Amino acid sequence: MGVELIRATQADEEVLKHLFQFYIYDFSEYMPIEVEGNGKYDDYPLAAYWVNPAYFPYLIKKGVHYIGFVLVKESRTHTSIAEFFIMKRHRRGGFGKAIVHKIFHQHRGNWEISQLKNNEPAQAFWRRVINEAVAGTFTEEERDNKVVQTFSV
């Protein structure tokens, strides 16, 4: 069964907020993030994704189940992925790669994708997927405690 990339709308905000709790939990391995007094992580600032035409929120579904999301931002100079998440149960099944290829197909042009310097699993994933998408024609540098890949699709 394949995965589906669905453009999210403001009606999907609650779904995204719930998925973000899992994402932030996973991310807390790489950043000092704590839950608030209510037992939840702070909500991610999604409001701009409903009004800014250069912001693209997507949900990822496998069958009838949500398994992740991706937030894409376009600027005058490049497109970037602000956040990318596949639930752990669905990782290593090729779903992330399939979604990234769909995103690249929908957002042609210059790209910059970054990962925290200490998030080595994310770096390995992005190097592998980008390399496959552009046949090795990308550059990589360290910038502001991040590893950044630059390329065109």
UniProtKB/TrEMBL annotation:
Q: Which InterPro entries match?
A: Acyl_CoA_acyltransferase, GNAT_dom
* Domain N-acetyltransferase per the UniProt entry, residue ranges: 6-153
Protein name per the record: Acetyltransferase
**Species this chain originates from:** Shouchella xiaoxiensis
